[in-house]
Every structure is written in structure tokens, then in C-alpha cells.
Amino acid sequence: RGLNQTPLDARHLCAWQEFAGMLSPKTAWLFGIWAAWAHLGAQANVVVESKSFLGKREPLTISSLEIADYESPALASPPTCLLPREDLSSVELDKLARANCLRVYKAQEQFFNLTRRWDKSAQQAWDSRVDNALQNCSVVATQSPGVAAATALNAWGDIMMLGKECCNQVGPPYCIVSGASKIGHILPLFIASVVALLARCFVFCCAGSVVMPSLWRAVDASPRPSGQTVAQESRHNIRESHPNLSIDLDQFYKLSSLHALPEARTLIPPTIELFVNLQRKFGFQASSAQNQFEHLLSLWRSECAMVADTDPNHSGTEVERDLLSRGLTKLHAELLDGLQRYRAKLQRAHREDASDRHRHFEGLWASSPEGLAKLAEVTAFLLVWGEAGNLRFMPEVVCFFTDLLLSADIQGDERRTESGDYLASVVRPLYNHVFDETYEKVSVNAAGRDQKKEHDALKKFMPADCVNYDDWNEFFCEPRRLVKSLVLTDRTKLFDKPPGQRFAQLRNVDWQTSLKSVKTHREVHSLWGLFASIHRVFFLHLMMYLLTLVAVVPAPPESSYIRLAGNSTPVRLSAVGLLVPLHAACWKLASWFTAGRSVRCCRHMAINALLFILWSLPIATYAVLRYVEAFGDTVLHRLHSRLSMWMVVVVHVFVSVFGALVILCVPGTSSKPQWNMTRVPFKATVLRWLFWLIVLSLKARLSLNAVSALDTAMDELMISRPGKESLRDLPQYAFSPQWDKDMIEWSILMFTGFLLYISDTQFWFSLGCSVLGVLVAFQQRSWKCKDFFQVDSVARIPERFSNKVLGHDDESGVAHDFPLLWDTIVKYMRDEDKVDDDMQARLSYVRAHGTDRRPRIFNPRNSWERRLTRQLGLFNDPTWPQNPDVQWRIMALARGLTMKMPRPFRAPYIPGVTVLIPHYMETILTEKKELYADQEGHTHVVPLMSWLEYRYEEEFKAFSTRMAKNVSHWPQFGTMWGSYGPQQWKSLNVWASMRSQTLWRTVAGMTLYHQALETHFKLAKDPRGFLLASDSASDPKKLNHYVTEMFTCLISMQMYPFFDDVMFGHTNKMLDEFPDSLKIAFIDFEEKGAEAERDGIHSRQSRRYYSCLIDKTCKLVDGKRREPRLRVELPGYPILGDGKGDNQNHAIPFSRGMFIQAIDANQGAYFEQMLLLPCVLGEFRDSKHGDLGSQKIVGFPEHITSDFGSIGDFAAGAETAFGTILQRSYAVLGGRMHYGHPDMMNKIFMIQQGGISKATKTVNLSEDIFAGLDFTLRGDGRKIQHTEYFHLAKGRDLGFNTVLLFFSKLSAGTGEQMLTRQMARLSQQMGLPEALTLYYAHGGFYLTQFLLSKGIPLLVFIWLFTLLDGAESNFEAFGTTPSASVPATMGEMLIAQFGWVMVLFLVAGMAPLLVELSLEIGILSAIFRCLKQFLTLSPLHFIFQAKIIGWYVSNEILYGGASYVSTGRGLPTER
Question: Could you check whether the bond before residue 556 is cis, i.e. omega within 30 degrees of 0?
């Protein structure tokens, strides 16, 4: 503005003319019109009129445009600057007069020295303008307010500014540029037209953009390669039938403990016959049938254990009389729960009667005992599921195949189908279609490893329309669409065939045509995709923010004109109601963007029409309200004399609140859910609502100061705000330079304030969870707070363990077997070198004169003794071990025994459980070259073995003592590592591996389940006289076999065929060292051979792939690999995702028992914790018979052992808080999901939803959590809980780089997770408290880091912007003079806006860990650890971590491309 009204005007104009001189006359003319429209005013007019200048193409000099040419207007001429309104008060008129004359005085003072540099004519012109203006201002004091204001306006606007600017506004923006009013009318229409035109072009030209998704259509993401393999009518397989399958099954049955039950001879032989006949008739692989027979017996045994546990008061004879039948009934009800529901939907869709469904199976067995039909269904399901391969990720596909198989007509079919025909004819064609969606081929690289190649369009990013497992599965979830779409190669429909022929016709299904349009949810990488998932959270916070603004912004003074936001507080409050239709429109648009082609045309038009009317009501009522405000109540009196504006306000508020409640509190309004969510108990609902009401109330109350500071800063900076503008005056100055500048500042300030407002909820949530976690911890202990603080829980271990774990009836007494059991626990600690011989003797019971004397550690101590000796260590306690790990283990056991624990299962009826450990190429066992390499020439390098010895000095001394006592000729070399021989280094390698993050440590810990179960068998003295495993006490081999039936440690070694000799040796050593329950599953391969085309193997895959199982009984091949005991051919290359999910999926068929526990290869366990397994399994006990109460995921806390080094301590502290107090709170609030390790799940229900993880490439990078999301979505009684009396160990990343890499992977995975259908549907179908918890417990944490990382730069930018916006000291006359110092105002605003957010960030980050450590080790020790972290700059680390998180999660949401990142979990010394 200073350039426009000063002699510098000429230079500015000259620049425009020089630019125009480069153009053709026609282009210059168009440019002049555009410039005039773009606020260049008189300058552009000169350009247009200078025809001679355009013709000569010469630059116009300063001398050709003299300032003296501007004549001062005569006072008698009509002024251009007029008063805006006639109804201004005297105070406002006086304010206008003073402000304009003050500008004149400042201009005279500040431009005096500048004008001396001009030529005389320019000086005379300027002096003349100043004299005329001063003359006007000199008479202002003697005039009336109205005349004085007009005179002052004339002095500044007409005389000084030559009519180009009029400062006739009482409030911001104060000054108006001439011509702005016309532009204010025209420009919005022009902008709207341009935006509409660009949007129209954008839809058709840029439909594939990652920023703006296609509005009108969804397209196929990946090109379908030509030459897709199609299943042929006739299939032949090179695999021959297994002639001895019946013999193998019978031999396994005779070794099973079930053969001792009374009904075994009646039920098991027909089961064997059923497996053999189904395998032969339908072409299942013999190895798969054998595997599933073993699987069935393990499930059957587990269900028998669950049934036997419900009759604790009956004798063994009564319980076992019909135990197999009852167990089969329970297994059928649970395992086929999903199949029964699916079958019912399919029958309703196709209107078929299934009353004679089993009539085709009459020839599959010789006898027909009662309940064999259920057994046939269970067997068929397991056989279909066992060979499904990657199709297991689509559980409804398995149900569909099973249902068709159960209806298949096999009467009179005399042909003998070869083993593998089911795989080649049914599974492989659909697998090939799945493979073609993403991948071009699988080749073999130079190292002999498989190398998959994606389509060129999918190498870096996965488009929104790329079909994945969930889309295909949902196609089979909708029977109506399924019945219409499944077509055969001859173009007939599958469901037009008779039911008995459909299974045989599956080989002829044209999957490419049938699955052409199955996309139901588009993972749109844009803010629209994110908005579809979090729109309720966004709406809630935006509404709270606007309401807070209305509350803190004072009501404007009364005036005769109407303001944009209204003149009264009720009207201003009513404007917030317009957020409802605006949000609804955005929500529907986001829903449209994320909807796939298959569902866009069927979105419940009637419901949407009603919702449209509902969303439109606030607009109509608000329009009536503003009309009444403008014209008064007389408008309403014409309708009825009692009507008033307040009634309109009430109606508007009602419809707005109702619409807001529909958005926030009515689940499932966007689409019909496929499953019913689990009903939340009333008490839990009240607690969750109360929690969030308290959290949001505290947030809203304490945010008032921040929002008020924002409003105060805008007042002091004199920033124009649209809500306070007059509707009559707004067109006069809209889009003027001053108004534009104010709007930019206002928008940035409001947007930044909202960013911080929505961000700080995460911190309040964290603080709320900290408080709630304490309350839940006391509730777990039956609110015995006094006992928690005063009673010595360690001294009560014998009584509590005897009562809660061993089932001793007397709560105050000690079980007879406990001393022996405790000594066994101490012995395990000694074998692990956690204690030495002396401490082992102090911790053990002393036996004298036939009695057991308690160790002194169980002598009660008061609270002060415990604090001074055990917690703070100020005084030495000879009975208290000094090893921190042993201290934690004893305290964890004591804490766990204070909690409520379910009644344990008693041997021999303990359900089976499998521990599944996925493994890629992680270290199995450390080698000497890793621990101690040749140090010649590298004397400054410290060997890793020396570091471990320094870190675990006392444990190494105990190790040396133990080896010297147990091994002859053990050398006493100490740390002279080069002096140890090869045999000694084998022991050193194991010792070091147990203190590193190795697979050996994990397996050593998990197989302690085996020893713990053996211990329970030995201690079991059930007087009821069970027949099952009755000979286990007298025969150790049978005891080992029975325990192996109950427990399996299954390692899924994805890269086993590619191991080198060292890793093969380590694997074999594990199998030899650990119990028989250790099994290894791996993916094997061979060349696909000449029969590949007949077998339907994909033409662009060069190998056959097999899922194999080995154990210690398998013989070695070439002294390295073991020959598989079971070998099941897969439909094709199994690793179609990012790895881990596929690795788990191929191994799950080899799991045993009904429960499965997910473990990572960096975990460990403790014997005393493994003894609690019967209690843990009790968490899955049905509350009543038949209620399917075992549909659970049970989570446990972890003991983080990698807490050395500053970074390691930070990571360990964060993981400790997350795995304990936060998980405890999430479970209560309904937001806990599945996080992989160390959750235990009911496998029977997990396989009905696709497994324990998902494996779509990129989308399911965080594969574990989707098991919990799907588990919650399927509802129908499913429950996720957190139990804290049971612990496992875990190692975390230790180095700065590895920690940040870990969070980069988590952040990218979370970004993809936020765009999935699971998050979108859960966020909508959950109740509001649960949806808020789900958001802030998962994606909200990562998005908060992003918002903070963007909010801080915005604050700095707005500070700099306002500072630079102020006029320079030499040009203050042309600026708006704030009422306060700009730096001081912005400083106060930033302190109020961001200062408390930073404090809240630090407090909320520390609070969970501080509170949890206070509960575990005492308040003083907790404060000391948190203070140590603070002094070692943990806030700086977490700020840096927050930036990393924000960067990766935002990039993933907007662009995609997430991939697995291997962190290595190395020591902090590694670089």
C-alpha cells in the first residue's frame, strides 16, 4: 500500500510497463485487463492507455510520469471518501477523526527527509498536499463530530492518498482501497467458476491422483496380465494316493490319550474311516489329511478338558462316560459357528432347503453312531481349511467351499480321485487369481531364492482400487451378490446347477469374470481416506472448539447493523449448528471416495434421503433465525402472536443438537454392518462415558485460557474477523489488501489454534489412563488398598500360590507340595545363573527332622523395611537377592498373586496350547566370532563377550562356578577369552545367547511351558480317578507324550531351506536340546516339473511350494536338513504380503490345541510364570454351558529386559508403560486390540476370521493389530481383555537409529491402518467412548505427533508474519497501529497457546511410567528413574521421535508406499 500512494508509485508502475513491453500488443492489452482486475488500479490503466509506449516497446522513465501531475483536489469538489453509515455514534466519529488526522501528522513527519531527495516540482506537489491536509485537520477540533470525521476523511483519503484509499472503518480492516467494493462482488463468483471448471477437468484428467481420489468412478488398479491360468475341466495330479493313511491314523490314535476314554472305540475308528474316505473321494492330500486328523484329536482333547472342568464335583467315571460326545458337540458348536451363520445366509439368499444336506455322506462310513454328522462337518471343514493356503485369509471362502463339499453328490461315483486333486482343481485357480492381482511373476535369483515381481504400476505404491483379501472375502460374505456373480467357463451360473454338482463344478468357475468388480473399500491415500475413519473425532473437537470460541469471545456492542455471525450471543451460538450439515456433507463425500465400485450403487437410498433431510434442517432453521433477526419479531407475529425469535433459536438448537447426536452417538449410519458388535455391559458403558466426560471437561475448561489468549491477541493486533463484520459494509472492503492480509492472519491463527486444541486431547487421554490404571489395579486386588501398601506380598507367596495355583483349600495354609515346587523355581534361577550357590541355599527351604523350614525371604517385613532394603537398597538384606532380574521376578510373582485369578485347570484335563514363533533370519545362537573376534591391530575394540561379562558380572561368576562344579576340567581363565577351548566356547555361546535377543533365548523360555505342565502332572492328586493319562505318574515317557499333546512350541522358519551350515547346526541343536514339544514348520520347494500345467500351477511361477513340519524324531539328510514328517503342497508361492503374516499363516495348520499364543523371536520367559498357565487358560472358561465365552483374546504385560543405555532405558520405559498401565486402561475402555506378542487367543475362533494376522502387501504392514480389529468387528460375544498376573520377557531396540527405524515402521504401518475398512467401520460402529479410545490408543497417538510437528512451525510462521506485517518505522502512517506491542502480544499468545501444551506433553509422557513404577517398585524409586531419564535428555529424544513419527505417518496417509524395515535390535554400541 505504501508503494501505491508515494513517489515510489512510479517505480512500481515502471516495472509493470517494462513487463508489458515484452509482450505483443494484444497480449499486453489482456494483461492490462487482468492487472486492473487484480487490484493494480491506476497503474494498469496507464499501461493500457500508453499505445505509443506499447508500439515503441521502450521503457517508461520516471521523468515521464511526474508526481507534480497529481493535482490536489479542491475542497469544493465532491469528496470520494465518505462516512460508511449515518448511524455512527459520536464516539465512533471521534475515533475516525483522530485516526485519520494522526495518519496525516505521521506522514508529514516521516516523509519530510525523504521528499528532500526529490526534485523541486515533486517537493512542491507533496508540500501542497500536506498543507491542504493539515489545514483540514486544524479545523477538526472546532467542528461537530460528523463534520469533523468527514473533514478528517477528506484530509487523509482525498488529499493525501488521492482518493485511492479511504480509512473510514471504525474497526478492522480500517481502510478500504478504491474499487475494492466492485471486486468484492465479482471476485467470489469468478473464483467459484474457476474452481468448478478445474474440478470438472480434474475429475477426468487426474482420477488416479493420490491427493484427490476419483469422485465419479473407481477403476481397476492393476493391469491383468494376459495368459492367466484357468482351471481345466480335466485335472490330473502326479501325486499318488497314500495307501497307508488308515494305518498311520490308527497308530497315532493309539498313542493319543483319548484312547483311554470309554467312547473312544465307538467314535475314533469311524473318524479314521471318515478321514480316509473324504481324502480319497475329494482328492485331499494324504499328508494334509494326516495333519488334520492329529489336529482334530488335539482340538477334541482340549474341548474334553473344557467340558470336564465344568463338572468339578462329579467322579471321574461320571465325567468321562460321555466326555467324547460332549466334547465333540462343543467343538462342533465353536469351530463351525461361522459356517453355520454363513450357511444360513446362503440359504436365505438362494432359498434352498438344507434338511437333507447329509444324505450324500451316508456311504462314507460303515456305521452311523449318533453325532457322526457333526463329526463329518468338522472333518470336512478342517480338510478344506488345511489345504486352503493363502485362501485361509478369506474365511468365508473356506466356509463356501466347505458348504459345497457337504452338499456334494458322491453317490455312485466310482472313480478314485488322486491325492492333490482338490488343491489343483478348487484352491489353485482362485489362488492364481489372487496372485495376478498384485504380482507379475516369481523368479529365482542367483542365490536360489524366490524373488517376486509386482506389476509395474504397483512397485512403489498400492492404488486405492487394488483388490485385496478383504475385498474377495466380502464378496463371499454377501450371498446375494455371490449367487448372481459366480459364472462358469461356459457362461452358465454355478448356482443354476443342482446342489450336489456344485462342488464338482468349482473347477470350471471363471474366477476372473466372477470377481471382476468386488472392491468394497478403497484405501484412498489422501485426507479424505483419513477423514472417513476419524470424522467423529474431528467433528467432536471442531464443535467443542467453536463452542469455546463463542464462550470466550465477548458479545459485540449493540449496533444498528447486522454482523455476519450475528449481533447477540444466542445467534452467534446458533451459527455453530451449521457445522452439522457441513460435516455431514464432507462425511458423505469421504464415504463416497472410499466406497468401492461394487457398493457405490447400493448405499441405502431411503436412509440417505432421510439423513439428507435431517442434515438440511439446521440450514433452514438458521436461515429463518437470521431473517427474524434482521426484520424483527413482527415477521413471526404475522403467523402467530406468541411466536418470537427465542422460539426459533430453540428449534434451531434442537435440530442441530439432534443432528450432532446422530453423527456422534448413532453407530452404523453409513452402512449396514455385516456382523453385530458385542454388546457392552451397562456398567462398562457408564464407566467409559464417565471417563471421557471427565477428560473432555478438563480439556475444555483448561483450554479456555488458550482460546481466550488467541482472541485477545487478534484484538490487540487489530486483525479483522469475518464474524464481527457488518453484512452491509463487508462488500465495500472485501478482498482489499488490508482485508486479505487480515484474513490470512486470522485463518492461520484459527487453524493453528485448532491443531493444538485437537492435539492436546492425546495428552489428557494419557493422563486419564494413568489415573484409571491405578483404579483398575486396585480393583484387580478387590480394592484392598491397605493390604497393597502394608502387607508384605513376598511373605504371602507360599499361601497365595498354594491357594490360587495349586488349588489348596485353606487360604491361610501352605500346600504340602509347595516347598518342593519353590525349590524347583530357585533351581531354575540357579541353572540360569541368576543366583549363585549361596543365594540358592538362602532362598530354598531347609529340610530337617521331616519338616520344611521356610526361607527367611518369606518372613514378613513392615513397609519401611521393604522400602529401605528392597526398593531403595539403603541397607543390606542378606535374604534378598541382589540380581535385579531375580528381584523383579519375585516381586512380579508376588504382585500377580495379589490379583483375582480364575480357578486353574487341573491335570490331566488341561486344554492344549501352541506357542507360535515366526522366524526369518534372526540369530539363533551366538557364535564365538560374534562374541570374540581376533583383536590384533584393534586393541581399542572391546569384544562383545567382555561387554556382556561387564554387564552381567555376578551372573558370569555364577556361571563359572556352576561350570567348574558340573564340568570336569573347566578352566579358570576368567575374561581371558582367547584361552577357552572349542568345547568351553559352546557353553559360553549359550550363556551369551541367553543374555541377547536370540531365538535360542526365546525357545528356552517358551519350552518352560513343557516343564511347568510336567510339574502340574506330578503334583496332581485328583481323587476322582480319571482314566485319561492315568499312567503318567509311573511312566516318564508317557508323561512326556501327554504333555506334548497339551503344549506345542512351533517355530515357523520361513528361510529354513536357505540356512547355511552354521544355522542348520543351531537348529538341530535346538531340537536336540529342548523337549519333544518343539516343532519347526518351514516352506520347502522343488521344481514344478512336467505336470505343472495339468496341476494348475501358475505359469509365471517356477516352483512347487510345500509347508513342512519337522521335529527331533525326523532323520537328518546330509547331516544338515531334516526330512519332514508332514509335507503339504501349497497352491503357489505363499509369501504374497510383507512376510510375517504369510509366515504365520502357513504354519497354523501344524498348531495343536485350541489356544495359540503369538510370540516374537526376541522374547523370553520364566519358570515360575509358566506355572500359572492353568490359571491363564481359565480366563477362557465359559461362564455357563454353551455361551461361547471362550471367544477371547487375552493380553499380558511384558518385562522389558533391554533397559541399559539411555536410549534403551527410554524405549524400555515407554514399552513398560504401554504394556501395563495403558493396556490395562485400554481394555477397560474398550479400545484394546491385538498386538501380537504375547497375546493368547482361542484359535478355534481366530481361524474363522482369517487367522491371527493379515497379509495384504503394504495395507497390512502392521499385521498383528488387524486380528484384533477383525475380532472386534465380528462381535457376537467376542472380547479382548488384559490380564496382569502373568508375565513374559521381551527385548527392545537399544540404539538411537534402531529405535527410530522401529518407529518409522510403526508409523508407516499405522498410516496404512488408518485408511483400512477395519478402522473406518469400527470408528463408525463403535459407541462414541469406544471410538475415541480406539483413535487415541492407536492412530491418534501417531497423528498427534504429526499435528504437533506442524503446529509449532505454524506458530513461528504466524509470529514472523505478524512482525513483518507491521509498517516500518519510516512508514507508520500507512499501517494499522496496534493497541499493544506486536512482539509482546505474540509472545503472550504463544505462551498461552503452546507453553502449556509442551508442559502437558512432558507430563503426559512421564505420567504412565511414573504411576506404574510407583505401583511396582515404590514412589521413590519411580521418581528416581524418571528423574534420571529427564536428566539424560529423554524429552529431547521423544521430541525427535515425535518428528520421525509425524513425518512417516503423514507421508503414508498422503502417498503410501509402506514397507517392512528391519531394525536388527542391535546393541547401542553398533553403528
Answer: no
Under a CB-based contact definition with an 8 Å cutoff, are residues 308 and 412 in contact?
no
Residue 171: Cβ within 10 Å count: 16
CB 258 within 8 A of CB 299: no
Contact between 1302 and 1272 (Cβ < 8 Å)? no
SS (H, E, C) 11-80: HHHHHHHHHHHCCCHHHHHHHHHHHHHHHHCHHHHHHHHCHHHHHHCCCCCHHHCCHHHCCCCCCCCCCC
Please give the grid coordinates belonging to residue 1191.
471367544
Tell me how crowded residue 969 is: count the other CB atoms within 10 A of its CB: 8
What is d(CA 10, CA 65) in angstroms, rounded to the nearest whole number?
7
Extract long-range pairs of 460-463: CB within 8 Å, 24+ residues apart.
Answer: 460/1457, 461/210, 461/525, 461/1258, 461/1455, 461/1456, 461/1457, 462/221, 462/523, 462/1257, 462/1258, 462/1259, 462/1456, 463/208, 463/221, 463/222
CA pair distance 691, 701, nearest whole angstrom: 16
Rounded to an integer, what distance in angstroms lies between the CA atom of residue 663 and that of residue 585? 12
Nearest to 646 by CA among 559, 581, 568, 550: 568
Q: How far apart are CA 622 and CA 809, in angstroms?
A: 71
Read off φ and ψ for residue 60, nearest 5 degrees.
Answer: -85, 130
Sequence-distant (6+) residues with CB within 8 A of 151 are 97, 136, 137, 139, 140, 143
DSSP 1282: E
Q: Is the dihedral of CA 587, 592, 594, 598 positive or negative?
A: positive
Contact between 1015 and 824 (Cβ < 8 Å): yes
pLDDT by residue (tens digit) across 288-327? 999 999 999 999 999 999 998 887 777 777 888 899 999 9
Mean pLDDT confidence for 644-671: 84
Cβ burial 522-542 (10 Å sphere, 16+ → b, else e): bbbbbebbbbbbbbbbbbbbb
What is the rounded CA–CA span in Å between residue 89 and residue 93? 6
Amino acid at position 469, single letter: Y
Tell me the CA distances in angstroms from 121 to 68, 125, 553, 1121, 1160, one per residue in order.
6, 6, 52, 102, 87
The grid coordinates of residue 1027 equal: 482314566
**C-alpha grid cell, residue 1420:** 521413590
878-911 pLDDT, tens digit each: 889 999 999 999 999 999 999 999 999 988 899 9
pLDDT in tens, 1263-1280: 899 999 999 999 888 999
Report the amino acid identity of residue 649. V
Give the three cell numbers for residue 84.
460508511
> What grid cell was written down for 377?
462337518
Instruction: Name the pLDDT band for 182 (thresholds 50, 70, 90).
Output: low
Neighbours of 1460 (CB within 10 A): 16
Nine-digit cell string for 1437: 529424544
pLDDT of residue 1025: 66
- Give the mean pLDDT of the chain: 83
Name 405's Cβ contacts closer than 8 Å, sequence gap at least 6. Answer: 282, 380, 384, 503
C-alpha cell of residue 558: 449493540
The predicted pLDDT at position 939 comes to 53
CB distance 1074 to 1003 below 8 Å: yes
Q: What is the pLDDT of residue 1078?
A: 97
Which pLDDT tens digit goes with each residue over 1182-1203?
A: 766 556 678 999 999 999 988 8
pTM: 0.86
Task: Go through 763-774 and write b for each residue having 16 or more CB atoms within 10 A of its CB, e for each that does not.
Answer: bbbbbbbbbbbb
Output DSSP code: residue 1399.
H
Q: Tell me what pLDDT residue 233 has.
A: 38
- List Cα–Cα distances, 1187 to 458, 681, 909, in angstroms: 46, 16, 20
β-partners of residue 451 are 443
Q: What is the average per-residue pLDDT within 516-538? A: 92
Q: Which three cell numbers, joined as nine digits, stand for 151?
A: 473533514
